[in-house]
Amino acid sequence: QSALTQPASVSGSLGQSITISCTGTSSDIGSHNLVSWYQQDPGEAPKVIIFEGTKRPSGVSNRFSGSKSGNTASLTISGLQAEDEADYYCCSYAGGVDYVFGTGTRVTVL
Amino acid sequence: QLQVVQSGAEVKNPGASVRISCKTSASIFNKDYVHWVRQAPGQGLEYVGVSYPGGPTGSARTFLGRLTLSRDTSTNTVYMGLSDLKFEDTAVYYCATEEPRTGSFDSWGQGTLVTVSS
After folding, report:
1. From CA A89, how far away is CA A102, in angstroms rounded?
2. Does residue B2 surpass a pLDDT of 90?
3. CB count, 10 Å around CB of B9?
4. How far apart are the first and last CA of chain B?
5. Which of A32, A34, B50, B70 matches a 20 to 30 Å C-alpha distance to A74?
């Protein structure tokens, strides 16, 4: 199972909105609604910020939103803040007992 | 406080085996799926496998034949064993819980660094 494709880096200014894409195939993102997104600070474990494609766990800011179209999922961060600077990973169920992660995106706040 | 606590760092020779533990609460252990994810130094996340309540397990294809997942019901602990270690198995290994069928890895352990070195 090949990793999902994400841009290596995305940057934006304070208060701006950015979108991170996550491209898979008809075997993973295209076939299942179990897409999740994780935020990871350096040296820390990942933290889920979106699950089932569009849902936010309690306690996660509503500035984070997810969507999906065909084989591509997207994460949008609106009103970018300094604390959003981190690595972001998408993940999709791929059938059976398999999951596949994205290649990861480093978000920089200018 | 952490709901999921992992065992400490390990250093192993190539060809050896390693076993990492992941201790949870009884409520999590009896209900949730426990997944394993690894991250090589400076690299992204890689899916390893899953342990289901009651005992069934699953492995990503990359680890078939080398991965052993087990549970100890007396201590609410899930174990991940990896055999025939290679240099490229050097990574931080995380366990993470999933409320069934949500596809969301909710609670993560602090990670266990496994270093394969001669």
Report:
1. 6
2. no
3. 12
4. 36
5. B50
Q: Provide the chain B residues 51-110 that lie in CB contact (below 8 A) with chain A.
A: 58-61, 94, 96, 101-106, 108-110
> What total number of domains does chain B contain?
1
d(CA A94, CA B42): 25
3-state secondary structure of A99: strand
Cα(A40)–Cα(B68) distance, integer angstroms: 27
Question: What CATH number is associated with residue B12?
Answer: 2.60.40.10
Cα(B69)–Cα(B5) distance, integer angstroms: 16
Amino acid at A58: S
Domain containing residue B19: 5-116
pLDDT digit string, tens, across residues B70-118: 999 999 999 999 999 999 999 999 999 999 988 899 999 999 999 999 9
**How distant, in Å, are the alpha carbons of A47, A84, B3, B118 from that of B31?**
20, 32, 14, 40
CA distance B14 to chain A (A): 25
- Give me the residue from B45, B108, B109 closest to A101, CB to CB: B45
